[in-house]
Amino acid sequence: MKKIQRLACGLTVTILFSLPMAAQAEEWIQPGTETWLISGGVFLPEFDTKLRVNNSNTDGGIGVDLEDQLKLDKRDETGYADLKWRFFKKHRLGVGWFHFGRDTGATAQGDIEIGDGNVIQAGATLYTSLDMDVFPISYAYSFINNEKHELSGLLGIHWTDIEFLVDASAWVDNGGTGPSGQGRISAKAAAPLPLIGVHYRYSFSPKWSGALGAAFFKLDLDDDLSSFSGSLYSVRADTEYWFWNNVGFGAAITAFEIDVDVSDDDWHGNLEYKYWGPQLYVRARF
Questions:
Q1: Options 3.30.830.10, 2.40.128.90, 2.130.10.10, 2.60.120.560; which CATH number does 2-278 get?
Q2: Can you give the pTM of this predicted structure?
Q3: pLDDT, tens digit, 9 for 90 and up, residues 54-83
């Protein structure tokens, strides 16, 4: 998380240093005519995460609630950054990156079954971590683009790299073989889900705008074709104000849900996570 926070902070400083350029600008950039949009900010989501690890080629297993049972924090904060390139008036490419990294130590309050028959017994000392790097990549086509309205269709990939780890010391029953002093359960996977969506922005004035966007996808493939399947839903509302020609500030609310089944050498199981929360960001346009 520190790496992405440093990146976002550096990007924000770079954007703010572009303020002198605004004073030199001769013509105000009209909505929907910019070539580059560069954003950096902070995201403050609240999570609901459920995970199942089998690590075998069999279905089944019991899902674990990471916040309630393994005591991961429900809230996190992270920096994020994104870049959008309008290479023609109606065509845009976008790429972003943010990192969710949560870890905690706790004592198991009750028996927890996870993995291939592993039972972490009440009283065990737990260390749990869940790291996710998220890379949204999209192409947008504007069906409408004028000084007041821009309505776009989106196609893209929501790529998530996931790493999960539980270390439990004392009172770990490994598949019925009896207690052991130390147990470790880990899993990792890459979940590239395609998405399709729509985005609409209304400009109240050349300086102030508001937008709504939604994206979704459901993918079911045979194991012979892919190691994953799942669904994705995302909704976002934001507003932006351009205090200077090249620099503006924005606030957004985002809600997101992903449910992925994974079947590969490193993980056979399921991950379902939901988050929602506010975003505050600074944006430069050129």
A1: 2.40.128.90
A2: 0.80
A3: 655 545 556 788 888 888 888 888 898 999
